[in-house]
Amino acid sequence: MADMNITPGKKHSLRVDLTPMVDLGFILISFFLFTTTLSSPTAMKLVMPDQTARPDDSVQVRARTTLTLYPGTGSIRFEEGKPGTHPMGQVFLDKKPLLRDALLRFKDGLQREGGSVLAQDMTVIIKPASDVQYGQLIGVLDEMAINDIRKYVMVDATAK
């Protein structure tokens, strides 16, 4: 039999070059910094009334072009025209019948009756109840922006 001469070999040290990993880390950091500066938060523009205005100043709107919304818990009641003269309807933000459909139907009715001038004169009065959730109120304001309703006002529910 042949003799096997096993000699312990020299241990080689393992060397890992981390330079590409560091480069990748810096590239990722610079990418995320760049993309976060590009994505600026968007917020809805909210125009607040003039604080110097006298409380007896009022704006006259045509009852025919007015839609009054009463956001409450879970649903939104609405009334067309002068409050108290028409039966109230009920709509929702997340299920049918939708608030968007009611707004478009009212706007289209004004468009058919008086053309674009009457439709642009459309005014939505929002009278939130005391128990309305903040998210639902923001949903109503979003619908005003989505449906391009330019005249809307939020008043106290007890206001006439």
Write the layout of secondary structure elements.
Elements: H1 19-38, E1 66-71, E2 76-80, E3 89-91, H2 99-120, E4 123-126, H3 134-146, E5 151-154
Parallel strand pairs: 1-4, 4-5
Antiparallel strand pairs: 1-2, 2-3
Describe the structure.
This protein has a five-stranded mixed beta sheet, with helices on one face. The chain is elongated, with a radius of gyration of 32 Å. The mean pLDDT is 80. It has a domain at 63-154: Nucleotidyltransferase, domain 5, CATH 3.30.420.270. It is built from three helices and five strands, in the order H-E-E-E-H-E-H-E. It is an alpha/beta fold. It has helices at 19-38, 99-120, 134-146; strands at 66-71, 76-80, 89-91, 123-126, 151-154. It starts with 18 loop residues before the first helix and ends in a 6-residue tail after the last strand.
How does the major sheet shape up? 5 strands, mixed
The chain-level structural class is alpha/beta
How large is the count of helical segments?
Answer: 3
Distance between the termini: 114 Å
CATH architecture label name of the domain at 63-154: 2-Layer Sandwich
Globular, elongated, flat, extended or rod-shaped: what is the shape?
A: elongated
The percentage helix is: 25-40%
Per CATH, the class of the domain at 63-154 reads Alpha Beta
Fraction of residues in β-strands:
5-15%
Q: How are the strands ordered across the major sheet?
A: 3-2-1-4-5
> Compute the gyration radius: what is it?
32 Å
Assign the CATH topology of the domain at 63-154: Nucleotidyltransferase, domain 5
Task: Kindly report the average pLDDT value.
Answer: 80
Order of helices and strands: HEEEHEHE
